[in-house]
Task: structure prediction
Amino acid sequence: MTYVEPIAHQVRLADGTIPSAHAVQERRLSDLRGLFLDLEAEAALVAHDPLIYRVYDAADLPKEDGHLLFSTTVIEPGRVGDEYFMTKGHFHARADRAELYYGLSGQGMLLLQTPDGRVESLPMVAGTAAYVPPYWGHRTVNTGDAPFVFLACYPADAGYDYGTIARDGFAGIVVAGADGPRVVPNPRFRAATRASTSA
Ligand code: S6P
Ligand code: ZN
Result:
């Protein structure tokens, strides 16, 4: 038996960064092209290609059953049209793998979706522990004026299925309303799938 060594990483609560992160992924608007509803607003903003979020992957652990991975996500404040900056969103490639999110700063929303298109939303602030059950796709949204930061912990063999949401979209989107953020149906949800099945 070879033992993986225990490790500890410091998460800077001031900004959500993990200075000792094994990898940092940066997602700009161009990486999320086509995911926001307002394509005109997206086209206008993409010229400047703003940073939408960064993911700090703490450790390079075996991507095997039994291990856990952990990371922080820092979503910048901002909007594309009425829609708040958000993550790409994914199902897990091993769809039965669950996940735990813990809010560290700012305010946001965790959007969840079943494969048949039922949406749930959970508001998140510092201190919120939110559970992503098996089979639910998930996306996070920054609904505040400051960066929204959370820690994620998930099975190391969960993997990513980005394709389903890239193709179908998310059934609900989060938009700014007169009384604050609102989750509304996405009129483009499964538009591509509908078009190809009705052709
Ligand atoms: C991984 C976990 C998070 C996200 C991160 C970015 O299972 O859910 O670490 O990867 O919040 O979101 P996305 O949708 O771009 O991977
Ligand atoms: Zn996940």
